[in-house]
């Protein structure tokens, strides 16, 4: 069981050209990943995600701050000891990073050879790993003959070979189609559940976070702008970046041009309601409207599911006598976050 702590971590690169100011790739980031947790770091390209990952496995040195993987303080260890620690940190990549000229079994065996494991033991371990990822029959195939999903399974088997306490996933499903991506994420969930391996994954896809993560850190321009339980962060986003990610997963409020269009076509009052599992009872909302003799139709929005809990925004057209509609709006405002759009 391995906890990973990043405490006030920064990474600056020298700027290009003589008078250029340094590039701050990672800016004072603190993330405490509990042992056995699946933690997603989401951000757009250039946010500093992969730099942060390279700092965690000690491939690069932090400019400031401390990083601990279990009891090992990565930021304080000399290179000779970092190699030992890296054996306990597995890594998988977007482009799989396999040896094309080697067979599947040899790819998986490679870290065991480096670790000096005897041949008979290696064979047993490789067979066990290939069985776990469902590729026993591909043991003798060359990796070029495999599909993208199979290649990533080999990558996962190789990363698990030395029994790491932590697995780092660098956009591990970004090169895969949605169905294959879900299968690989399901495999990572099994890795986490069956072996208790802590997983840190970086991604630019909200779907990935939603599918697999317990907690999430949203990064923007090197900074951790939002952090917490996946449901809490996405169902009540605070930063513009997080709001943009949420908008990729579900239609929230209508954009201004769409709103004009909705106003044209719907003559009733338009209100936007936020629904959040645990906070707002949908039947109560609809009953309130019915009891007050107000008609309703849903004209925009959606409800989605994160970590088994639902949230979303619905734009409703309220139809009926002006006064009744006003009273209904006042009553609904007691139940949930409500915005009158027209
Ligand atoms: P992400 O993984 O979120 O796409 P990166 O960590 O790759 O982001 O990059 C963060 C920022 O740091 C970018 O502005 C990038 O250009 C810069 N950067 C990354 N690596 C280097 C480097 N070796 N030298 C200079 N700048 C770098």
From TrEMBL:
Keywords: Amino-acid transport, ATP-binding, Cell membrane, Membrane, Nucleotide-binding, Translocase, Transport. One of its GO terms (molecular function) is ATP binding. PROSITE patterns: ABC_TRANSPORTER_1, ABC_TRANSPORTER_2. It comes from the Bacteria. One of its GO terms (biological process) is amino acid transport. CDD domains: ABC_MetN_methionine_transporter (cd03258). It holds the Pfam family ABC_tran. Residues 4-246 form the ABC transporter domain. PANTHER family: AMINO ACID IMPORT ATP-BINDING PROTEIN (PTHR43166), METHIONINE IMPORT ATP-BINDING PROTEIN METN (PTHR43166:SF30). This is Methionine ABC transporter ATP-binding protein.
